[in-house]
Amino acid sequence: MRFPRTLRPYLRCFPESRGGYTAPRPHLPQRTGRYDRQRPYLVRSPARRLPHYCHQSIKMELHTAISLISTPALHTPGPVVWADLGCGKGLFTRALASHLPAGSTVIAVDREPVKFTQPGIQFKQMDFEKDEWKQIPPLNGILMANSLHFVKNKAAFLAKTAAHLHKNHQFLVVEYNTDTPNPWVPYPLSFPNLQKLFRDAGYKKTDLLREHPSIYHRSKMYAALIR
């Protein structure tokens, strides 16, 4: 799909799973006044939100998120408790809840308040990296969809989660397959480095579930299951 020319400067910086994103200021054409002929420069316009139709076209749809993290490992015989750390607007929270058995609970965690109406989803407002997990029960699994790249010391963070996980737990990770940082992905984690991170933490198996093209970044998004 081709987007209108005036919207294309936004496409390089829009995270798929985070709705309502304010894009950086795009470059506008050069002015033609006398001062500009002597010293050309680019003019920037104030930051503004994308039009509603552009949000609908760019951001990932729920059915795509459901497909991206789909795996038979989520189909357990009884109810389970998972946490979605850094849930954002809750796209992958809802996708995960659709895979889990009836009676399961997904605890959505984020620093900003999010409202959920879907049964089985509970919201906890906290900083999952810095705060104590006093309100989090023992977990069967953790989902981190485009949130692990905000954690600088990932090894220490995994050590912190160990005390809150059942013995036979799982991790679901959705990330950009790159190791090049930028302002929106400060501590990226490619799939090879994800494998090394969890192997060093004592996990035995890291499976690449599938990949998905990303408008936000030249590299693809990937979903991985760690056990």
Automatic annotation (TrEMBL):
One of its GO terms (molecular function) is methyltransferase activity. One of its GO terms (biological process) is methylation. The keyword Methyltransferase applies. Gene3D superfamilies: Vaccinia Virus protein VP39 (3.40.50.150). Keywords: Methyltransferase, Transferase. This is Class I SAM-dependent methyltransferase. It comes from Chitinophaga chungangae. The lineage of its organism: Bacteria, Pseudomonadati, Bacteroidota, Chitinophagia, Chitinophagales.
